[in-house]
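Predict both folds.
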Amino acid sequence: MSEELERWTQATVYPDMWADPDDDPRENTGPSPDGELATLQDFLTGYRLTLRMKCGGLDAEQLARRSVPPSTMSLLGLVRHLAETERDWRNWIGDETPLAKLYGARDADFDDAVAEQSVVDAAYRDLEREQEATDAALAAHPDLGERVGKDKIAIRELMVHRIEEYARHCGHADLLRERVDGRVGQ
């Protein structure tokens, strides 16, 4: 990557933002949620939207581009990784036989994130399906102090870990996206 990209944003109100407040689906003009569980779910929803926004408007090649060498990370790889991670969290909840990996071998979520539209489409389907399944599994455990699974992890800890995982990878997505096409913003 020797080409110098010009930094840009679609925001006009605050030039360091991804989008103007009126155009940002994460903007909530109402009161913040009541209760700990609703607050955790609200933060998770915000980070999930951020990841999708960071990937928005890119083609398969751009999504699969490893724009920060020598890292194997790409935006598409992050989508696949988070689908894999959502599935793994369900393994923490239950005592059953662990679910198989979505993409097979270790690091296949990143290594096999290739610039094909069918791979991109499948990754988004996988992410949505796995998010819905994990959300449904956790909905059966509304007590944040309840301990589940063979390791007896608290639901609260699992929820916080999910937020941390998305937040960390949204930070990666910031850098990856800027290297792909120069777009910046929180």
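Second protein follows, with its predicted structure tokens after the sequence.
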Amino acid sequence: MLLVENLSKGYDERLVVKDLNLSIKKGESFGLLGPNGAGKSTVISIISGLFSPNEGSVTVGGIDMLKNTKKAQQLIGVVPQEIALYPTMSAKENLMFWGRMYGLRGTQLQNRLNETLEIIGLTDRAKDKINEFSGGMKRRVNIGASILHNPQLLIMDEPTVGIDPQSRNHILETVKLLNDDGMTIIYTSHYMEEVQLLCERIGIMDHGQLIACGTIKELVDVVGNKTSAVLALKESIIEREKLESFLENRFPKSLVQVKEQEIIAFDREPQKILSDLIQATTEYGAKIATVEMLEPNLESVFLHLTGRNLRD
């Protein structure tokens, strides 16, 4: 469904996406993870035809996005982070508008409108104005606007940010339903549990590069059976390099990572070095707030590969 080859994009001589390669099968649900600034939004903008890359190619459903942008875009639906609706119009009026923008008319538009309202669970609120809706309901209409034309590829960029649990659950169920019906999904989120629930394969981006890609099991195998010990500090580390150098004199470099406000040790039995690590951290002058042991999972893989939590 999607083939991205040797993709690079830069601004003012700064590369934000570097030689990225990615393929997604038709009907697959693919999660794209990365800390803030990793390049996810730029990749999504290029895939959807909003930006042109400096180098590389994007093919959607066999159509070259750069050479036949409009034709390729007809296969795509995009759910943006921000609400892209007219607040003084009703849900039905918004969907009618976007349906016409997709080229739907007459009976076809009315049928798709009714189907979409049922999918997003807002048939009984179709005539209510958007500015009367909760944040979660607005996001459901946002999704409705992106699927009216029944796209083959649906790109969802943080679709559950800042909403109530009930709306969040409804959105997750909607995504599963669409995927079960054969729609290819690209899903980005800062909620790891959502990606684990919805996605068959996951790609992890950092510093503009795709640094890992595979099923959850394949990604967890990257860490092996290593557990992570996380020391959360009371204050941010001002001179991080100094602390790293201090710890490297006592522990193998591959064992310990230093973040702005955390120290992480990866090992099959990190508890064996935990007391020494706490002692060394205290000797350096850093104050420890909490100590947590994390078994191998997607969160620990992400931490291991990027040195950061997903929400950082």
